[in-house]
Design goal:
This protein is of the alpha+beta class and 324 residues long. Helices cover 29% and strands 34% of the residues. The strands form 4 sheets. A 7-stranded mixed β-sheet has the order 1-4-5-7-8-11-12, with no helix packed on it. A hairpin with a 2-residue loop joins strand 13 and strand 14. Helix 2 crosses helix 3 and helix 3 runs antiparallel to helix 4. The longest helix has 22 residues. It is globular, with a radius of gyration of 22 Å. About 19% of the residues have low confidence.
Length: 324
């Protein structure tokens, strides 16, 4: 790529950052106006990005705009756009956002209603009350948004959330990258992963959409799982349902889970990650229940049951075969 191409790509990245920041309510409006007025190429790049977003957005979702974040940036933080964010996180806002900003800048957009947000840090859980009296409990490292007006809408951008939906007047419309659904009154667990996600129906029912295709209605005791581009609806055993929801009481349940998967589950809650130092240990099958905030008990159980030792080094916990 030549220097001109590199400069164009950099401008597009800046424009995307501003678009995401404006959509999420985190942008400094004056800083945005100054950036766009500083060079005609800035305004052109922003208009092009907004127009592309508008064309690629789901035509059913042009009015699903966000609300300002619950928390403000830390005091002393520098003004300017945040780090680049994947386009898919904000694609639902494309149509109206492009129209508003393309004509009259940030001021017009800020007049629109936008989502409210909540998130958790690694190892944190939090319960929020939604405007209709429903509740959402956020698991570790989770970010969600919601907007309640003509429709009751809830977005999960990353992580996992347990939803207790009132559903007396309107269903809750759930949006995420792999799964969309209409949730009746009931209890649900939705979790996103690196290659898909799952929607578990504990009570009530859900009409789910995967890549624009309507899936069968999911009833209590069943789940929609999206993995590696494939979707499947199946009934789950009581043990599987208990394992999927154990985090709500601060636990992890292992029922024959191989060690590599068990470590991945535990690492969701740990700033200091557990790492296999011996790949041959990966298939070791585990059982039992552990507290998500007590990795030492987990490590002790590995030592006592399987002779697997550990040491802390370089900000991680390394597992290896113990002697004898």
């Amino acid at each position: 790529m030549g220097e001109q191409g590199k400069a164009g790509a950099k401008l597009s990245e800046q424009a995307i950052d501003w678009l995401v920041a404006l959509d999420g309510g985190t942008a400094d409006e004056q800083a945005f106006d100054a950036w766009r007025a500083a060079d005609p190429r800035h305004a052109a790049a922003f208009a092009q990005v907004a127009a592309t977003w508008r064309r690629t957005a789901d035509p059913r979702l042009p009015a699903l705009l966000d609300a300002p974040a619950e928390t403000s940036p830390p005091p002393g933080a520098e003004a300017g756009p945040p780090a680049p964010v994947a386009w898919s996180r904000r694609a639902v806002a494309g149509g109206v956002l492009a129209a508003a900003l393309g004509i009259s800048g940030a001021g017009a957009f800020l007049a629109w209603p936008r989502r409210a947000y909540a998130e958790t840090a690694i190892g944190e859980r939090r319960t929020i009350r939604l405007p209709d009296g429903s509740h959402a409990t956020l698991n570790t490292d989770t970010r969600v948004g919601w907007h309640f007006a003509d429709e009751h809408e809830f977005w999960i951008e990353r992580g996992e959330a347990a939803l207790l939906v009132r559903g007396a007047e309107k269903p809750l419309r759930l949006y995420s990258a792999p799964i969309e659904a209409r949730l009746s009154g009931g209890s649900f667990d939705v979790r996103l992963g690196p290659d898909g996600g799952q929607l578990v129906v504990l009570a009530g029912r859900a009409a789910a959409v995967y890549r624009g295709t309507l899936a069968e209605t999911i009833r209590a005791g069943s789940a929609l799982t999206v993995s590696a581009g494939a979707a499947r609806v199946a009934a789950w055993s009581p043990d599987a349902l208990a394992a999927a929801t154990a985090w709500q009481s601060g636990r992890i349940l292992f029922d024959g889970m191989p060690l590599d998967r068990a470590i991945a589950e535990f690492n969701r809650y740990l700033p200091e990650k557990i790492v296999l130092g011996d790949a041959g240990l990966a298939s070791t099958r585990l059982g039992g229940a552990f507290l998500v905030d007590d990795p030492d008990s987990f490590l002790l159980a590995l030592h006592e049951s399987f002779g697997i030792d550990h040491r802390r080094e370089g900000g991680r916990i390394l597992l290896f075969r113990g002697r004898g």
